[in-house]
């Protein structure tokens, strides 16, 4: 869970997750929404993948990134459990 919190603390990564809420996207499509370098976007995507917040699927020559809602649901369940 430490990796999840590390990934979520950055606003760029949170925005990437918001973009992926709408559906899968390639790294190039994600990069178009930001004013930062493509290598920086790749770094953010790598951290999100290591935290299992996103999954990656190869379609032809492109990698499509998807939001992993299972990890998000587990995180929410943990937070709700804290309240009880």
TrEMBL record:
Residues 1-84 form the HTH arsR-type domain. InterPro entries: ArsR-like_HTH, HTH_ArsR_DNA-bd_dom, HTH_MetalResp_TranReg, SdpR-like_repress, WH-like_DNA-bd_sf, WH_DNA-bd_sf. Keywords: DNA-binding, Transcription, Transcription regulation. Gene3D superfamilies: Winged helix-like DNA-binding domain superfamily/Winged helix DNA-binding domain (1.10.10.10). GO terms for molecular function: DNA binding; DNA-binding transcription factor activity. SUPFAM superfamilies: Winged helix' DNA-binding domain. SMART domains: HTH_ARSR. It holds the Pfam family HTH_20. NCBIfam families: HTH_metalloreg, repress_SdpR. This is Winged helix-turn-helix transcriptional regulator. It comes from Neolewinella aurantiaca.
């Amino acid at each position: 869970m430490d990796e999840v919190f590390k990934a979520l603390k950055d606003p760029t990564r949170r925005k990437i997750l918001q973009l992926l809420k709408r559906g899968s996207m390639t790294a190039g499509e994600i990069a178009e929404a930001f004013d930062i370098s493509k290598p920086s976007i790749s770094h953010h995507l790598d951290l999100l993948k290591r935290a299992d917040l996103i999954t990656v699927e190869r379609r032809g020559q492109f990698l499509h990134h998807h939001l992993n809602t299972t990890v998000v649901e587990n995180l929410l369940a943990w937070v709700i459990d804290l309240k009880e």
